[in-house]
Structures
1.
Amino acid sequence: MTAITTPLKSNEIEEIVQKWYAEFVDVDQALLFELVTAANFMDIKSLLDLTCLAVSVMIKVCIRRVHNFEHIICLIYLIYVCCY
């Protein structure tokens, strides 16, 4: 897998990692969070990096869509759920 550098240069995962990896994490939000948890539990750094990248891109896209305070609260909750 291509090394993931920060700050992210794009909102498209395909522009950051190879196509196969981008397709692997192109799943619904609940499954993605389960993958993050599993990668963390099994201490698989490359999988954790990839899944966290997908979550961060999701958050980055959501931030651009935030129009009111309620959406910000939802976004903070999303980050909380993902990290813990």
2.
Amino acid sequence: MSSNPPTSAASTFLVIGERTNITGSPKFAKAIKAGDWDACLAIARQQVESGANVLDINVDEALIDGEATMVKFLNLIAAEPEISRVPIMVDSSKWSVLEKGLQCLQGKGIVNSISLKDGEAEFRRRATLVRRYGAAAVVMAFDEQGQAATRDEKVRICTRAYQLLTEKIGFPAEDIIFDPNILTVATGIEEHNNYAVDFFEATRLIKDTLPHAKVSGGVSNVSFSFRGNNAVREAMHTAFLYHAIRAGLDMAIVNAGMLGVYEEIPQDLLERVEDVLLNRRADATERLVKFADESKSVATSTSESNPLAGARGYEKAEEAWRQGSVEERLKHALVKGIDLFVETDTEEARQKYPRPLDIIEGPLMDGMRVVGDLFGAGKMFLPQVVKSARVMKKSVAYLTPYMEEEKRKLAATGATTRPNGRVLMATVKGDVHDIGKNIVGVVLACNNYEVTDLGVMVPADKILAIAREKQVDVIGLSGLITPSLDEMVHVAREMTRQNFSVPLLIGGATTSGAHTAVKIAPEYSGGVVHVLDASRVVNVVSALLSPEQKPAFMTEMAAKQERQRTEFGDRQNRRPLLSLTEARARKPQYDWAGVDLPRPEFLGARTFAPVPLAEIVPFIDWGPFFSAWELHGRFPDILQDAVVGTEATKLYDDAQQLLGRIVAENLYTAKAVIAFWPANAVGDSIEVYRDEQRSAVVARLHCLRQQLEKPANQFNHCLADYVAPRESGRIDYVGGFAVTAGHGVEQLALRFKAAHDDYSAIMAQALGDRLAEALAEAMHKRARDFCGFGRTENLPMADMLREKYRGIRPAPGYPACPDHTEKLTLFSLLDAPEAAGITLTESCAMLPASSVSGLYFNHPDSKYFAVGKIGRDQVEDYAGRKGMPVEEVERWLGPYLDYTPAKG
């Protein structure tokens, strides 16, 4: 920073080295996890040599003992004179780690951080302890209502904290360091455009109104949108600090080896960076994004061992494809999914072509035909197709006003753009999941089909009314939960009753070709086709709408479905079930006097809200993420796969970038509630008691038992087998949970959709689902810890994600517990709507969609299993236990019945 104007603020500014932070440096994280203390010390030493005035040390990681690691590292630093000459900032989200760090520090240390998010009482308690240790404290602009984003919120929270600290506990004002939250700019979301200005203005007001207090911040957050482009990020950090220091910034967490000189930033880059930081023009983000794409950094090294490698600067790199004709450029952009220049190129084409429709029917469709051909040939993958759709949508959106004007002028001539066909899609009543449906819609739109997507929880009458209004050629139904299968049957019957003749497509996670053939196709003669995934939908729809192809396609489909119905009947006849009495006689037997039945640390429900997203991320299982995008393979091996590895890596990088923003800006809110209750098994049900004296039964959880005959040495399982029976004389415990990361997911997805960016919208939903599942895994770990046996697991994360621990967490609606209505009892026991903000639809789907719920079983032998087919005797027994009509049980358990219920 030597060339910055010589103000007193600039001369006293402190650089806080960030590379000894496990979340800020992959190299440091790797060294810490490996116990390579020499490498850790080398990173700390390099930061001091590069100019760090303070070292920020953070060792927070799910599988690391934070307290012991912090103590070890600080003691090692104390023996290194070239490192220990600078102050230490102990950084952790866990108070116990911060306190252990404070106990090790020589001289005056800094705590990062305390805040009001847990309320005034806890804030004052921690601040009092910090003062007792003689340390300074970073105070985050975060209170009980969340993180401050605007200038006024930043100042309000900091002022409140300042008054509490100085007036209530006598905390020295000169030891208060406010962090008013440096948030990411240039995200494409309008309300983020002023985040840097809000920080500058808040800093100025804090320095003016809160005497002696300091201001700090994490600078790398501001440039999160440009991860991977070090030249632009360095320029953003340097320019941000230039303005922030003049506003009164005293210190900042930054990579000490990657700070540039303000005057040496090239003027064209500086202009665009400052347009963004100072929010000087509406198109600032677009201009910087375009500039970043056109510029190739010569400082490409990302080596943390030599962060100064490479000259600071950039060079213009006009790619060869930008020199082609406008038609060639549009085609290239579509095939490669590049949307940076689409409006410029579309306008150029509009000036060249007589009508906007000619552009759509000409170069745009030419490009999309290439995309469709490559996708159909397996030479292009789904994430690429969705990116291509983003380009197409943005171009069409640009042309739409001109087309509307043209329609008015050409109404008399009847000139229109004729789509290949009109498709209506909907997630059926009671169901909220639509990622797969959204992907199918994008793929169809890419192939010139006009798609009307009605969204989620759409009743049959609305689906069919709009289908008539739009005169659609195909109706597509989607669903994830098993009750949706019955709703699809209902829609098919309604289509027959209302004399529809258009084909009906069926898709979704619980659907199958066999179920479609056996249950849905017989209800509607207009053609019912199960579509396995998005890669096949274009060929199916094309065949259904082709007068030449449709007869042969439907004949083949009818024959295939007839075979499936026959095979289904044969399977039922070949595999007789045991009677319920026989199945119960074959349940596993345990010596309950010797079984370990751990008592949890607490009984009843406990809420965790909000759960910091950064704590959840390490528990993400990335395998299902790639499956959602129809890229199949085991993670991380899929990133090296010879066929899909390149695209899987690009998809993963995009996911990491958006996930980083979601975490840094708290775009999603994660909440969880878990509980433990005294319980005993009574037959195939579980009684939940008010207390350990079993003074009253507060609820009953009803379970189903496997009835398929097995070899003599195998058992017929039921979840109730894993809970001590009442007659054993021992009290047992069962747990429950409901977690969500979905608050904020749909809002972010809608913002992307409004910007014609389906790729990012689907990514936002997919990451919401991954975070919810990760939160379920993280809370299960806590639950095992609360029960004692989890504390001795010592499992690496890979084994944890493979569930190599004791205990299971089966979910209602899934194979071991196929009845979704058991969620009603679980949610009542947990008070999930109040505790976690999760509600149930009429079909017992959870809202928000990115939510997970289930039960905890701790029995040492507990395992997951599938109930499979069940007989009429068990259905009648189950209906009696639940106090529910047999017909209603049959409706909820339809896919699991080994018989055909009587039609009502």
3.
Amino acid sequence: MIDFTLSDDQKQLQELARKFAKEEIIPKAIHHDETGEYPREIIKKAWGLGLINTHIPEDCGGMGLGVLEGCVVTEEFCYGCSGIATAMEANTLAAAPVIVAGNDEQKKEFLGRLTSEPLLAAYCVTEPGAGSDVSGIRTQAKKVGSDYVINGSKMWITNASVANWYFVLAYTDPSLKHKGMTGFIVPADTPGITPGKKEWNMGQRASDTRGITFEEVKIPEKYRLGKEGDGFKIAMSAFDHTRPTVASGAVGVARRAMDEAIQYSLTRKAFGQPIATYQAVSFMIADMAKEIEAGRLLVYRAAWTIDQGERNTLFAAMAKAFCADMVMKVTTDAVQVFGGYGYSKEYPVEKLMRDAKIYQIYEGTSQIQRLIIAREIFDRA
């Protein structure tokens, strides 16, 4: 039996997130986009309502909800502003390696921090010379007695300067390539950590994106995740949990762009009638609707699969690739529906188009997703 409806609890969560986006995010989105100011007060309110950290297990103070519930919330948040949503949802990616590979003590300490007060965390893998090629990272962690000493630099790290702790991927044995990588939990107040300047990005400007330098950063062995050499596997497995959520954010941005295009096309007249009556415009909006619906179904399939305890790598990559490309097309077409006004900052669709582009880049580019999809297909052949 197939059932495409959300449960009553999921619907209530969706309505709460939708109301929050309407009342707290949308009215402040332009301000944060123009100033780049971090949305700290919005985050505190969302945390107070239980709309952040829904994925953290109950024994660590969380709600213990599934990936699907996280996708439902994220779609609504990103409908409001994907930059503000990214600032809030970065905890999902940072916490995923701890959920996947942390021991009980690590989970209670670091996941517990996120649920005891509105704190944030960050996932530190990308480097100035290593993005899609994770094996190209240069950060190293050397064992010194019962401690590890980390040296290196990370780049494009969301929540870099506001995080309470970081997940950091580093080489413990560079000669082994990706099998020589190890993951660590690093408290942000550890001496030797220096966040860089805030990046002024094309879109999602409310997100705190910076580089981080780790210089002789000493951490105890108890903050190592798993065994030495498990880091790459842990870091990548986190994406199976988070890529559906990221894809759901793209659905939210696309849905907002479509709604804006619909409302504009019903009021804007050309040659004496609303432009919505012209096939050239109505067909663009029809395409938006069908692609958004298809994207959401892929998101739900990827989320449902991992929530069932099954491996979802293929579906997660499909959802991420499809929704990233979809949101770019939908927002571009929304600008086209608005015509010259769409190119102006006075109307919302230019921001949506700027915000959309990053979905084809972060958490694995659209090209990397296609590599994963192809690999999964041929491995099963």
4.
Amino acid sequence: MGIAAQYGAVAALHRAADRLLADATRIGAVLLVALGLEASANGVAAQASRPSPAQATIGLDRAGLAALDRIAFAVDGVESDHGTDPKMWSPDPNGPQGPMQVSAAAAEDAGGGDRFDERQNRALGRAYLALMYRRYGSWPDAVAAYNWGPGNMDSWIGNGRPYDKLPPSVERYGILVLLRSSLAARGLAIDRRHIKRRAPDPHNGGAAVERLYVEIMRTVDLHTR
């Protein structure tokens, strides 16, 4: 093969390689557009399937909505003293914020909104409480999950609800919210003094608190069903 023929063959190979590269580039561009459209569609679908704060209360009857209002008001008081605690605004933008200490994840689960607006913060907190109630079917469990997180709550329930594995802070939070909501106060001769200290008997103190906690949980369920 002469030199001219060799050059011609090499040139032909280069042209073929250029065509393949161009075709691959076009195919890649098409794939990127398709994947982008699919991701966008999935994002829109996910946004559409996410409940709004108003939709989170769907399924609650009048008694359930009344209980939700009392629980949400109590949580507002426990978390921020009804918006008067300056520490309710965290320097961490992803941390709990506002009068109901709504996290970024909780706000997203509840339908999204401005956690830094007090009105929307309360709406998101109320909606998240409703979601927790719909998830667990119990206000005591819903309140505990609001404070502890549903992942921890699911694990605790899955392990048989071991009382010694329930963090004391979550226990105190739940009792305080339920007492302030007045749901547990009816029918029980107890007040806040009962949850500030344990029974004086060191051998029976834990059992006494456990009995009180169980009784509160039982009474709340009776008054909200």
